[in-house]
Amino acid sequence: xxxxxxxxxxxxxxxxxxxxxxxxxxxxxxxxxxxxxxxxxxxxxxxxxxxxxxxxxxxxxxxxxxxxxxxxxxxxxxxxxxxxxxxxxxxxxxxxxxxxxxxxxxxxxxxxxxxxxxxxxxxxxxxxxxxxxxxxxxxxxxxxxxxxxxxxxxxxxxxxxxxxxxxxxxxxxxxxxxxxxxxxxxxxxxxxxxxxxxxxxxxxxxxxxxxxxxxxxxxxxxxxxxxxxxxxxxxxxxxxxxxxxx
Length: 246
What we know:
InterPro entries: TnsA-like
Organism: Streptomyces canarius
CATH class of the largest domain: Alpha Beta
Protein name: TnsA-like heteromeric transposase endonuclease subunit
Strand content: 15-25%
Structural class: alpha+beta
Number of domains: 2
Largest sheet: 4 strands, antiparallel
CATH topology of the largest domain: Trna Endonuclease, Chain: A, domain 1
Strand order of the largest sheet: 2-1-6-7
Shape: elongated
Helix content: 25-40%
CATH architecture of the largest domain: 3-Layer(aba) Sandwich
């Protein structure tokens, strides 16, 4: 087996689809500055008979576009990146990485590529710890090595804290900009200038049926903030103005 952790930049190639929808395959060194988040996916995710997890698109508020996901877990991680204020661009199936193996060139398509607000590049693979076989381990190690050489950040992610997941899934239901309505949004921002229980603050602004969707949208955008990890989001959750927002 090739020790991928010792490979140099010349060992790697990247296949991608350029701005003109032309498929290209170039040395890694020629791809360091590519804006993959602005390009098309290198492959299409398709459903097939007998697959173990359902394929379903995720609509990302960050890009106002759809991401193809091969599993519920991928979709959940797409959602978490969409919720992350540091992420300014996002694409699924961004490129195919090639490197030498004992039986010829091997290839791997990472699940996501994200552009960060500091200009950095983030490459993400989604796979639970208990589902990583020898070939997967090699693919992730090769991707990590290529990212190291290119100056990109690589992250392999798996299971998600169930409380955080449940809360962000709830807020994601209100991520679309149509849930931002004035003057309710401005009134809610003022209402939570000091920490306040979620429902009490909402009812000070108006009827809960009209106000809560706007409140959840502001929480999604991080105009307002709440602890999403210590317990389920509820009427008594303490909401406050956030320092940063999208």
